[in-house]
Design a protein that fits this description.
Layout lengths: L11 E5 L3 H13 L3 E5 L2 H10 L4 E5 L7 H10 L8 E6 L3 H9 L4 E5 L6 H31 L3 E6 L5 E3 L1 H7 L9 H7 L2 H17 L3 E7 L7 E11 L5 E10 L1 H15 L9 H18 L2 E9 L2 H8 L1 H18 L5 E6 L2 E9 L6 H10 L4 E3 L2 E3 L3 E8 L6 H17 L4 E4 L3 H21 L3 E10 L5 E12 L3 E3 L1 H11 L2 H21 L6 E5 L2 H4 L4 H12 L6 E6 H5 L2 H13 L3 E7 L6 H4 L6 E4 L1 H4 L6 H16 L3 E5 L4 H9 L4 E3 L9 H9 L14
Helix pairs in contact: 2-3, 11-12, 17-19
Length: 705
Amino acid sequence: MTGDVNQISGATVLAAVAEDQTRERLRALLAADHYRVIETDSMHAALAAFECETPDAILIDADLESGAGFELCRRFRQDTRGASLPILIMVPGRDPGALDSAFDAGATDFLTKPVQWHLVPEHLRYVLRAQKRSQCIQSDRDQLRRAQHLAQLGRWRYELKSGKVIWSEEMFHVIGLPQGAPPGLGTFLDMVDPADRSALRRSVAQIFLHGTKNSLELRVTPPGGSERVISARMGLQRSGQGKAEFVYGVAQEVTERRQMERHLTQLAHFDSLTGLPNRLVFRDRLGKAMVGAQRSKKLVAVAFVDVDRFKSINDTLGHETGDRVIKAVAERLQDCVRGTDTVARRSGDEFTVLITDMAHPEDSAKVLSKIIDAFVWPVLVGDHELHVTTSIGVSVYPSDGSDADLLLKNADMAMYRAKELGGNRYHYYTSDMNVRALERLSAERSLNRAFEREEFRLHYQPQVDLGNGEIHGAESLLRWTHPDLGPVSPAAFVRLLEDTGMMLPVGEWVLMRTCQQIQAWGTAGLVSPRAAVNLSGRQFNDPSFLRSVERVLDKTGFSADRLCFEISESIIMQDVPAALATMNQLCEIGVQFTVDDFGTGYSSLADLQNLPIHTLKIDRSFVGTMTRNNDHMGIVRAAIDLARNLGFKVMAEGVEDEHTYAMLVGLRCDMAQGFYIGKPQDPAQLALQLREPLMTSVPRYGVGL
């Protein structure tokens, strides 16, 4: 890989992945981005391929041959050709030890499984560009070293008898003085930094005492100039009778070299975006803090800080905005801690905070509360006013762990518990979290197997047009029957699908099956209702969502104008401009949108009127009680009237009885859904209702009114 640092087209990637399906997906994905892929399915094959050709980057599955991926990474690092190559390792998600194992093995970066495939090319671009920049820095250092070797050195001599100073012409350039008479010894010493003068005197004394040559570095500031770093080497010249005659030496300016070394040290120990210490520095300081706590009988707290819903910021507003948010978060975190504490950036949107010198575990709550309170005010990025919150997990030394790895692992688990409770809070580690983490890992594995074994099913709930009593649409609802546990509540597994990233493939499967089923009903001569499909936030904010919808419509032949996505108002209101852009793209191909659970969020009809929305779905909490709660009746009536004035259709969900149905007809609501009309049912059951799709036992507006 040569040329400009940003040019990566044609880069060769060695992929060591056991699963055929994963390799096929990588091949197609990377080929689309013009990568050349060398595919291997075992450690032996990967090492053999590496012997034949050195790639530009390496991608390893940690689960290769029962976990041999980490060992393969170590083998590559032991080879001189692989010592500095970018290596990405795919690690199991939610495995607290997997990331540390990857970095300990020498990985450059990681991807969590289930893999978000659209991010793979971006990760590769990042590590390849970083590798090129590193090569450029190393090349610059090599050129500087050669230039220093070839450069003429400034020469000087101080005659002891006369006190005369003699300089070569180059010496004026080294010190930064104009050509002329060399300054006297006293004048030169005035230019030397006071902290270095004593070192200079000791060096000269050593020369006189032992007659040896000596070297040192001095910081020198010439009159009217800036500070320079001078590398000097000196010796003593004696006469034939052994009498000291003069001190002589050579000098060279090394300011630029020292600046570069400091810059490289900064890169190795501090995050380039925020300037915060990185994970290596944090672990070092944590280790020292634990040793100090043992001596002083004090406590140390480790806080794991994660920015809530940061991915949606990156996906909708771009990585440049995301970087600016991360910098703002870093600044606020630093403002919350004491001088003895440490804030570090771990990776992405994750930070760690080291809180020292505590007498009681609850002493850390002062810092943690300040962090939560610091994000009450929005983060301003350009024209965007972003409401950012954090979830914080806390572990305390020595009660929650006797080493750095265990403290970080337990703080990480506590952070995920804070997220489960809704985020924007801190949570201390408790011993039962290990049990909870194992249960969650088991649930994730079960979900993966459920998708692979086709344990998911779709049920459909009819939606009726109140104007004519006919079935207007069918909402598809995801159901899971565990082979051992039986039916599992959606509330128990949908959130886990979101957290693990499985919602993207499962969501596309739901859309595909729904379109195929409604097409099948039409082919069988039944009423073919509109497809109503629920959207999660993960799907809606995914950059590839539009392509996914188009792919399904092309494959099934389903007409886009018969597809309606149901999305909660809370997802839309997270970022209205980004939501508008996504919805407009889908509306251009004919798709319609229904705002689900309207009335339970923070939006108003005024907020929504500029969005391409077709229908508002009034939440069941209002509809189900409207016949016995006047306030809820007023809310439903007002929503219908205002929506009609703004050109929206209205659907009421949660219609459980004939009385509620009749009242909605009287209010001239457009559509309704609920157990009275039809429960969620499998396709065969709903097919029976589609043979006679008319509600005949209740009134319809326009009939008898």
